[in-house]
Amino acid sequence: MTGPVDRRLAAPQQPSSTGGARAFRVLWTGQLFSLLGSSAAAFCLALTVYSETGDASALALVVGASSLSMIYLAPLAGAVGDHFPRRHVVCLGNAVLSVVSLLLAWQVGQFTAAEGDGFRTILLLVFLAGTAKAALSTTLSATVRELRSERDLSRINGLTSLVETIPTVSGPVIGAALYTTVAPAAVFAFEAVTFALAGALAATVRWPAAERPGRDRRLRPFAGARRGFRFILADPGFRTLQLVYAGVNFFAGLATAVVTVYVVTSSTAGTEEWNLAAFTVAGPVGLLLGALVVLTVGGRGSRAAVIVTALVLGALVGRLTPALVAVPVVWFVAQLVHQAGVQISNAHATAVWQERTPRHLQATVFGARRLLGQGPFPLAVILGGVLADRFFQDGAALPEAAGAIVPRLAEDGGGPGLLLALCALGQAALALLLAASPRVRETVRRP
């Protein structure tokens, strides 16, 4: 498969503006409901597992089981999503997730009643849910180009990002209310209802027919996944874009492992909890802010300049500044800027892939893209924890040496701050590499 051939396939006739727009609205309304249930259930599951086991490693296993399947099985899930009609994949995916949520409701009830029994079953169900979500999310990303004919896909991605972010703020509140007033199992029953509702809404609309030239009727997910990787690796611009985002996510993983430690150790006595709570809340608020910015002004300016600027500001303001300034208000604002930058750069980058990937291959390519771009993140989180414990503790050799140049790094929190600063500089350097590549500039240019 060659890049030019695929590019010619990427621009078939536009979908019906009326039918596609209505399907888009109904589909993403259902997605809003299902994400609300998922966010509430994720909060409840974390709280339940930790309260019953008192073990941070058990909590990490639950989070890891979901993220690993969503990232590392994404290429296979995307190939499956492209093989079948997207409407069927969305409906079936929501139905599977609804059943898994009901099983989790039952198992969580047994888990809390039996003092920890059934933890392996919970891990298995979480892994299965992550796999279904991988197929569903890659298919949903592919439907954007199939259902909407607007030229400015960046703004449309701002809208979908807004839908995906709102539940991260309100979902935990709903989860906490149900958890404390009813029972943990009720939260998963609520999640099951939201998935069923999303699937039912998707089944009510008539989607425009999608072109799938030369599709092999046999389901071959591994061959399909290889096709997605070949599409990306055959294009120099896409290769560089993926390399940069893989590096950015690697440094993001290292920073994720240490940022909580930094906030806690840099806080004055008695303020740790409040500072960490404010910093945590700033994350989803920043995502909402970034989505609103894209939705409002997504079509203006050079797309390459927007992507690079968002990455650089997110790194230097969002990560380097708080590492060098021990002021909680600065941390809060920096986290807002960082998460807004993530949202803005991702929305514009996703628009590039939607424009230049053949519609019948979009779920396949998006699955491969997720693995190539996000695959380093979980490994970097683990590595970051190891580095923070061994080389970037307060008083260790590296922070002490850096403190001779930047005195802040020799103070409380300076060790984790040094690792945070190095991650910020790494991300900024990769963004500048993106800006310097003429092939990337041509790839991200609006058609």
Report the total helices: 18
Structural category is mainly alpha
CATH superfamily of the largest domain: MFS general substrate transporter like domains
Q: Please give the domain count.
A: 2
For this structure, the CATH topology of the largest domain is: Growth Hormone, Chain: A
Order of helices and strands: HHHHHHHHHHHHHHHHHH
* Amount of helix: over 70%
Catalogue the unreliable spans: 1-16
So what's the CATH class of the largest domain? Mainly Alpha
Rg estimate, integer Å: 22 Å
What gross morphology would you assign? globular
The largest sheet is:
none
- The appropriate CATH architecture of the largest domain is Up-down Bundle
User: Approximately what portion of the residues adopt beta-strand conformation?
Assistant: under 5%
Q: Give the averaged pLDDT, no decimals.
A: 85
For the secondary structure, the number of strands is 0
Distance from first to last alpha carbon: 22 Å
Fold and architecture overview:
- This protein is an all-alpha fold and 447 residues long.
- The chain has 2 domains: 3-207, Growth Hormone, Chain: A, CATH 1.20.1250.20; 229-444, Growth Hormone, Chain: A, CATH 1.20.1250.
- It is 81% helix and 0% strand.
- It is a multi-pass membrane protein.
- Residues 23-441 form the Major facilitator superfamily (MFS) profile domain.
Please give a quick description of this structure:
With 447 residues, the protein is mainly alpha-helical. It contains 18 helices and no strands.
